[in-house]
Amino acid sequence: MPSTTTTFSSADEFSPLKPILPNLSTSEEMSLLMARIAELNRANTVEPSVACSTDLLGQDKNAVEERLLQLQNDQKRLLEKISELEKQQKEQTKATADQSDQFSKILQKISELEKQQKKQNENTTKATADQSDQLSKILEKISEMEKQQKQQHEEMMTKGCHSVFAKHSISWNNDYPHIFYFEISIKKMISAIDFGFAVREQTKLDGLIMKGASIYSSSGSFWCNGSSTAGKPYGAGSTVGIGFSFTNRQIIFTKNGVLLDFFTLLDDSSFSTNALFPFVSLCNYGKIEANFGPKFKFDLTTLC
């Protein structure tokens, strides 16, 4: 009987395992691996019959067994690769879950911070509004006190207030050139005292002097150029002074030897002359002592 030779013409059927492409995604690589396993399974079902045919036909049995072993090794490597990919996929899934959880916590923290910031802004807005309201009340109170003070001062003009004036207007003093200054010491005060400089048209004996006068009132107000500024009040036991600088037309106010404030006196065109006369006004009963120098409680040399 002639011998029969079996030839395997399909090179791909017994080709070695192709390498897995590293650039494929996990799902794509898994699909390829599953297809390869199916291919190997088909090869396993075919190879025994081939081996039997080869044995019957006298082919080399060792070659077939070697091929089967190779296919089994390939299948084992594929299963290991699948196991490794499944493990990587689980790790990636866990990492994704961890990142999602971390991102959720970050969003929650941002939400809490936004709530805190909103609350702080609300508190700041409320505090600012409260401060603004408080400042408005303070300014309103100051305005009210100024009105009351002015009203009281005007009322005193018609309630037994009388004034005395110097016979001559102020002039340079040889002891202290360029400035005229005098002080009064309060011995007794019942109601109020004003003193300062007045123009000739205002040298009246009854009532308080207001228009065109520079005044230091016992209530603490400094009057100059028709408006008042809060200063320091004085009473019995105090020595207060007022001065006029001929060089810069400044009015100065002092108390107990200390310079309190100064203002620039403006010319008033409504008066025929701006010559200034020293005066003192007393309301009800009072007693003062005037000092026109040369020695004062305030040191005039500090102004030179």
TrEMBL record:
A Pfam family annotated for this UniProt entry: SPRY
PROSITE patterns: B302_SPRY
Organism: Heterodera trifolii
Chain residue ranges for the region called Disordered: 114-133
Residue ranges of every copy of the B30.2/SPRY domain listed in the record: 102-297
Domain of life: Eukaryota
Listed name of the protein: B30.2/SPRY domain-containing protein
SMART domains: SPRY
Gene3D superfamilies according to UniProt: 2.60.120.920
